[in-house]
Design goal:
- With about 400 residues, this protein is an alpha+beta fold.
- It folds into 3 domains: about 10-105, Butyryl-Coa Dehydrogenase, subunit A, domain 1; about 115-210, Beta Barrel (Butyryl-CoA Dehydrogenase, subunit A, domain 2); about 230-385, Butyryl-CoA Dehydrogenase, subunit A, domain 3, CATH 1.20.140.10.
- It is about 50% helix and about 15% strand.
- The chain contains 13 helices and 8 strands.
- The chain has helices at about 10-20, 20-35, 40-45, 65-80, 80-95, 100-105, 210-215, 220-225, 230-260, 275-310, 315-340, 355-365, 370-385, and strands at about 115, 125-130, 130-140, 150-160, 160-170, 175-180, 190-200, 205-210.
- Strands 1, 2, 3, 4, 5, 6, 7 and 8 form an 8-stranded mixed β-sheet that branches.
- A hairpin with a 2-residue loop joins strand 2 (about 125-130) and strand 3 (about 130-140).
- The longest helix has about 35 residues, at about 275-310.
């Protein structure tokens, strides 16, 4: 522990490294059961993973973006699904810190409390006395099985004003989980759907989505921390880059582990390691992962620097955050594809990790806020002098 009583970046990364055997042990179980194993969740809690973005006044760590990226990258070496869920918990958990102090007191009563959520406004919030009544359904709720709260997004519909997106905090016990997570990749994340049916949410647990998008917490105590005075999308982008880099490293390690003694069938190479083609493939995959690391580090560095300075974010910087994330996804996917191609026919067996890693990165690649093409187009549009055509910047 550091002299002020909180773990350092190096200590948190080491704790994440220590639990990699547990993540790897249960990765196949998570695939089969479409959710994380309880031992994996417990191990991450013991390693302090779920406290990284929580306020210090609730025994959280308030770590910076660089620490988030490094810890989540380390977890991704063990299991991409576990790292993804940890990143998801960090983002709605950060959004919960935008709410009034009395709401945070309730949500963070357990320092290892977990908040799942989404940014899709696929529900309605109708005003009633004392709050709103919410009806709707949300998809892709990663880690719902192990969450105590969900941060929901809904359209606030009132006869006196235009509809506007709001975020709200709802106990998982008020929602219905729909077990519909049957996918090709990231199966272990348990990203099921949840449903609200006439759920009452008190007024204090409802806040304009723009408060988070613009990094404007209601709580004055929260606003004093550099961790929470940054817009939402750069925060989310930086956190999300960690699991991506981790998947790339996992692919490198999985390929290297199988390389000694592997032959190239129907060729004269008794060892794949001797083939010049293998040398080119490994070099290409490694350089692509290095380039992805540059984008992740630049993104985290910008988030941390702007937060320290409490500086205004220019629109070019906001869209650059999404562009850096998209480019990291593109490069890691390409890196993993090279290694998966080089792994041969035997790699399609389910007990060979490279096939799961490849499916996981392709699932990440399809994410609406991470798709390289979408993010590059948004970045180029602003660079050409046009306004962004998305509120999610």
């Amino acid at each position: 522990m550091t002299k002020i009583g909180f773990p350092s970046r190096q200590q948190l990364v080491r704790k994440a490294s220590d639990i990699l055997p547990t993540l790897r042990k249960h990765a196949a179980w998570a695939e089969e059961n479409r959710r994380l194993h309880d031992e994996v969740v417990d191990a991450m809690a013991d390693a302090g993973v779920f406290r990284m973005r929580k306020p210090k006044r609730y025994d959280g760590y308030e770590v910076d973006a660089r620490t988030m990226v490094e810890v989540l990258s380390e977890l991704g070496r063990g299991d991409g699904s576990a790292s993804w869920v940890a990143a998801v918990y960090a983002i709605p958990g950060w959004m919960a810190c935008m709410f009034p102090d009395e709401v945070q007191d309730e949500v963070f009563a357990d320092p290892d409390s977990r908040v799942c959520g989404t940014l899709s406004p696929s529900a309605t919030a109708t005003p009633v006395d004392g709050g709103v009544v919410v009806n709707g359904r949300w998809q892709f709720i990663s880690g719902a099985h192990h969450s105590q709260w969900q941060q929901i997004i809904a359209m606030h519909v009132s006869p006196d004003s235009e509809p506007q997106p709001v975020m709200a905090l709802v106990p998982m016990s008020d929602l219905t989980i729909v077990d519909d997570w049957h996918t090709a990749g990231l199966r272990g994340t348990g990203s099921v759907s949840t449903v609200a049916n006439e759920v009452f949410v008190p007024r204090e647990r409802v806040l304009s989505l723009m408060a988070a998008v613009n990094g404007e917490p209601v709580s004055h105590r929260t606003a004093e921390s550099k961790t929470y005075r940054v817009p939402l999308l750069p925060v989310a982008a930086a956190s999300s880059s960690g699991p991506i880099i981790g998947l790339g490293r996992a692919a490198q390690e999985a390929f290297a582990e199988r390389l000694p003694g592997r032959k190239i069938t129907y060729s004269d190479y008794d060892s794949q390691r001797d083939a010049p083609l293998t040398h080119l493939q490994v070099a290409e995959a490694t350089l692509k992962l290095d380039e992805a690391g540059f984008h992740a580090e630049r993104l985290a560095g910008m988030v941390d620097a702007k937060g320290r300075e409490a500086a205004q974010w220019e629109i070019e910087e906001r869209v650059q955050a999404r562009a850096d994330l998209g480019q990291a996804v593109r490069l890691v996917r390409e890196s993993i594809d090279v290694l998966a191609t080089a792994s041969g026919g035997s790699s399609i067996y389910t007990d060979v990790p490279i096939q799961r890693i490849a499916r996981d990165i392709h699932a990440v690649h399809q994410h609406a806020l991470m798709h390289p093409n979408t993010n590059a187009e948004l970045y180029g549009r602003v660079l050409c002098g046009l306004p962004p055509n998305s509120q999610y910047v």
